[in-house]
């Protein structure tokens, strides 16, 4: 029999806010354990939650990027369960009136275009992290992540293969990064995914027994886990190797197997109820419109504009639109310099290399785009040599500088004083009669050696064409 | 008898005590529970800071029933409190007998209102959201209210002036200009017409309500009897909402980070279960069970959600009364005294006697206890209620 796979995803995304969802602790990743904690996010009695408005901003932004309806009155609810990583023994989430509902996302796969429906997006707080120490057989709690804001994006069961799941996740990641909702890093846990999967005979409209794999945190692991689960389900149905039950399973990526975690019989009752300490959040027109106005163009809209209006190549446009930071920098540099191709090259090539050296990703480009435009102009106007311009770019990665002032201060301005250039070239030529003789004897390489020495003496501040002419002239005179 | 959970000496002129549900930095806070025996908070309640700011010195923590949900303090792990053989909260005994300006108390289920009525003290339960709950041990957050208790209306109003006011650390507060309506000197419309809630008077000793009606007649305030049948639903509804919120709020006491931890455990589940089994009292355990059940799948609509709906119906009923009347007169207790024998006869007596206090608790409306009865008013009408209470103080006795 032929089977089809039915998959729905719950994707958790940590929001890119400075502070936590209900207190003013930092929400940044990577601090020392329990550095970002206060009585509120430790669940101490007497602290009350105050909603971080930025969380609602980003929740709305995510919903708009994913074509959702926004609930103009959205409420927070308490979800109770006991676990040591949850200091108050409840999580504040959205159960009754989530911020976004009824969205859709377009994905492209080898089978063509498809829409995946979004059931809802809700805002909630993250739990802490348990650190297990096998040596002392203890578990320690790190509350840094407690109350870090999350959105959970719940899809309808519209996905039917690992390929579609990956396309959907990549699309979510691109859109949310583009709108600066989250950095969506699987490896740091800022994007995590629960996979709900069942199979059924092809064409059937009845859903099969569903299993859920929680907290998947890499795209390749998700792909392997889905392939494994589909095979396991089919095997169970065809060969009766086991009876499928609705359950939560854990994926072990090293062993390449999934394991049963808990079955429905032991699952807790979360006892949701509206949190009386958080007033309903009412989104008025002004707030709604300001978020709508702040949305970026979709990456593909920008790409079309870059190729059709600005004449960039497909490749260049693809490279730029992989990152919102690239696009912002490019557009600012272009506005200043008027040179699209040059602006693109500086970002795709020079900035990318600099980021690489700094072990940073394309999303982390923070240099001032306007200043980059000024630098491009300085190069194109022959005021600064290309090698020196790269040094200026490096300085721009360290601090926000004015390229011209920096060039002047560091002696990077191209000299137009031909007399002075001639004097330096003459001295170089006189000091190296062997190279001069070699060149005159037909060795082209000797000229390059002399040229290099001259450029070094001139600290790079000379138009190469001008220098070449003066050098040949001086050699001929020698 | 254990009136104080913790206290300090003070030579200051203006001394107050606060309920042991209110966090203080230098004094311990136990909520009347073994679970929090010796607990010292990292921070103080906003009202404690406001009191100090207004020149008061908090000299002690008044013993309370465990999580303040009982009849009149009898469930405290640190012992019940009495005045002349009658059960009553520690705060009311202290205000009655000691040289303090009054007490700032925490109301969850009417224990302080009852105690004030039994001891013939003044208590103001202000409009929900006009006094910060920041730094109070959460009981049932949708009704929890910081109240003031004193011998006279004047002293009570002074305390109210000190503690009322906007606080950005409590997300359910009204704006400061609304909170200012409560304070002495703010303009108000005096009470001219009072509704008497018959449905509640029917199940109480009529003497105190009758005495107050006599005063109203003398004072030229019209009193009209209304059936107010719907108000008898407040008790069941508030008990359900309160227990549901309470079971969630006390789930933080798990023996992991602070508070009581059992010595008797082999794994995390036993740590949770045994710590709570050993440290919580019977009434609180009952409330936890009832509250969990009220929120459970299948019962949520039947119990908790129904409670929310009753809350709305009662609020609407009060609104309809306030279209015609300035205040509603009702009893606070069914009789003049309670003893341990009453508790032994019915362990859940507080979930029944709360029928008089639950209308104000569930709606968040202001109430003033005076002469052993209460006046419930529209939101922000504390000044009018206190004005009438002051007249009773002068002329009614």
Write the layout of secondary structure elements.
The complex is a heterodimer of chains A (478) and B (397).
Chain A: E1 3-14, H1 53-65, E2 69-70, E3 73-74, E4 77-80, E5 90-93, E6 100-109, E7 112-125, E8 129-133, E9 138-142, E10 149-155, H2 162-178, E11 191-201, E12 211-216, H3 219-239, E13 247-252, E14 257-263, E15 273-274, E16 281-282, H4 285-294, H5 299-308, H6 314-321, H7 324-337, H8 340-357, H9 369-380, H10 386-398, H11 403-409, H12 418-431, H13 433-440, H14 444-457, H15 464-477
Parallel strand pairs in A: 12-13
Antiparallel strand pairs in A: 1-10, 1-11, 2-6, 3-16, 4-5, 4-15, 6-7, 7-10, 8-9, 11-12, 13-14
Helix pairs in contact in A: 1-4, 2-3, 5-6, 6-8, 7-8, 7-9, 9-10, 12-14, 12-15, 13-14, 14-15
Chain B: E1 4-7, E2 15-19, H1 46-53, E3 57-62, E4 82-83, E5 86-87, H2 90-97, E6 102-107, H3 111-118, E7 122-125, E8 145-150, H4 153-163, H5 176-179, E9 193-197, H6 198-201, H7 207-219, E10 222-226, H8 234-249, H9 268-279, H10 282-295, H11 300-322, E11 327-331, H12 340-345, H13 350-353, H14 358-363, E12 367-370, E13 373-377, H15 382-396
Parallel strand pairs in B: 2-3, 2-6, 9-10, 9-11
Antiparallel strand pairs in B: 1-3, 4-5, 6-8, 7-8, 7-12, 11-13, 12-13
Helix pairs in contact in B: 7-15, 8-10, 8-11, 10-11
């Amino acid at each position: 029999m032929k089977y089809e796979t039915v998959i729905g995803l719950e994707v958790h995304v940590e929001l890119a806010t400075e502070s936590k969802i209900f207190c003013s602790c930092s929400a940044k990743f990577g601090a020392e354990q329990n550095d970002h904690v206060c009585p509120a996010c430790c669940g101490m009695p007497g602290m009350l939650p105050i909603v971080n408005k930025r969380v609602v901003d980003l929740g709305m932004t995510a919903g708009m990027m994913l074509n959702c309806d926004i609930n103009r009155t959205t409420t927070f609810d308490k979800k109770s369960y006991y676990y040591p990583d949850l200091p108050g023994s409840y999580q504040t989430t959205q159960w009754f009136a989530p911020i976004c509902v009824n969205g859709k996302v377009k994905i492209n796969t080898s089978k063509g275009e498809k829409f995946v429906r979004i059931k809802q997006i809700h805002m909630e707080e993250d739990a802490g992290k348990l650190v297990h120490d096998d040596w002392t057989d203890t578990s320690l709690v790190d509350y840094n992540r407690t109350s870090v804001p999350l959105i959970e994006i719940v899809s309808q069961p519209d996905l039917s293969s690992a390929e579609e799941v990956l396309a959907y996740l990549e699309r979510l990641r691109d859109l949310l990064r583009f709108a600066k909702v989250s950095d969506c890093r699987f490896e740091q846990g800022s994007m995590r995914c629960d996979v709900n999967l069942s199979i059924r005979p092809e064409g059937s409209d009845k859903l099969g027994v569903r299993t859920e794999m929680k907290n998947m945190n890499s795209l390749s692991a998700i792909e392997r886990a889905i392939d494994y689960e589909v095979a396991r389900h089919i095997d169970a149905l065809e060969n009766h190797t086991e009876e499928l039950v609705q359950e939560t399973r854990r994926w072990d990526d090293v062993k390449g197997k999934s394991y049963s975690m808990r079955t429905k019989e032991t699952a807790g009752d979360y006892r949701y109820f509206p949190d009386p300490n958080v007033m309903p959040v009412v989104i008025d027109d002004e707030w709604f419109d300001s978020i709508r106005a702040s949305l970026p163009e979709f990456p593909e809209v920008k790409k079309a504009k870059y190729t059709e209006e600005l004449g960039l190549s497909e490749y260049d446009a693809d490279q730029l639109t992989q990152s919102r930071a690239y696009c912002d920098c490019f557009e600012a540099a272009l506005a200043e310099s008027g040179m699209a191709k040059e602006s693109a090259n500086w970002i795709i090539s020079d900035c990318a290399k600099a980021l690489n050296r700094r072990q940073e990703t394309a999303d982390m480009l923070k240099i001032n785009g306007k200043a980059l435009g000024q630098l491009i102009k300085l190069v194109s106007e022959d005021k600064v040599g290309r090698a020196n311009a790269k040094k200026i770019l490096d300085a721009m990665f360290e601090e926000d500088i004015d390229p011209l002032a920096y060039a002047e201060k560091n002696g990077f301005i191209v000299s137009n004083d031909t007399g002075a250039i001639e004097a330096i070239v003459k001295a170089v030529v006189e000091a190296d009669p062997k190279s001069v003789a070699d060149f005159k004897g037909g060795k082209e390489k000797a000229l390059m050696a002399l040229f290099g020495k001259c450029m070094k003496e001139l600290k790079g501040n000379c138009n190469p064409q001008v220098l070449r002419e003066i050098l040949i002239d001086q050699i001929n005179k020698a | 008898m254990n009136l104080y959970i913790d206290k300090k000496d003070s030579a200051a002129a203006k001394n107050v005590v606060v309920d042991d549900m209110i966090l203080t930095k230098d004094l311990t806070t136990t909520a009347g529970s073994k679970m929090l025996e010796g607990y010292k908070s990292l921070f103080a309640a906003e009202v404690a800071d406001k009191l100090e700011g207004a020149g008061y010195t908090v000299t002690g923590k008044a013993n309370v029933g465990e999580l303040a949900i009982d009849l009149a303090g009898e469930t405290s792990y640190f012992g019940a409190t009495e005045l002349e053989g009658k059960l009553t909260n520690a705060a009311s005994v202290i205000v009655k007998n000691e040289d303090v300006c009054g007490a700032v108390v925490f109301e969850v289920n009417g224990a302080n209102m009852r105690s004030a009525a039994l001891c013939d003290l003044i208590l103001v339960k202000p409009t929900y959201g006009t006094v910060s709950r920041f730094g109070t041990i959460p009981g049932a957050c949708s009704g929890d209210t910081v109240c003031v208790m004193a011998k006279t209306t004047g002293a009570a109003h002074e305390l109210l002036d000190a503690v009322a006011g906007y606080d950005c650390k409590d997300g359910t507060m009204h704006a400061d200009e609304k909170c200012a309506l409560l304070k002495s000197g703010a303009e108000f419309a005096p009470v001219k017409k009072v509704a008497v809630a018959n449905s509640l008077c029917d199940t109480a000793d009529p003497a105190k309500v009758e005495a107050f009606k006599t005063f109203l007649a003398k004072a030229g305030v019209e009193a009209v009897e209304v059936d107010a049948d719907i108000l008898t639903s407040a008790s069941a509804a508030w008990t359900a909402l309160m227990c549901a919120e309470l079971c969630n709020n006390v789930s933080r006491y798990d023996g992991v980070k602070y508070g009581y931890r059992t010595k008797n455990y082999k794994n995390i589940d036993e740590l949770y279960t045994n710590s709570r089994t050993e440290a919580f009292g019977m009434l609180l355990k009952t409330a936890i069970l009832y509250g969990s059940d009220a929120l459970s799948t299948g019962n949520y609509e039947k119990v908790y959600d129904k409670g929310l709906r009753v809350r709305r119906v009662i609020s609407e009923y009060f609104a309809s009364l306030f279209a015609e009347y300035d205040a509603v007169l009702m009893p606070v207790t069914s009789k003049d005294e309670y003893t341990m024998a009453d508790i032994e006869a019915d362990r859940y007596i507080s979930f029944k006697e709360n029928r008089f206090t639950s209308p104000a608790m569930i709606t968040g409306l202001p109430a003033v206890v005076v002469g052993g009865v209460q006046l419930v008013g529209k939101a922000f009408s504390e000044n009018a209620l206190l004005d009438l209470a002051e007249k009773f103080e002068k002329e009614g006795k």
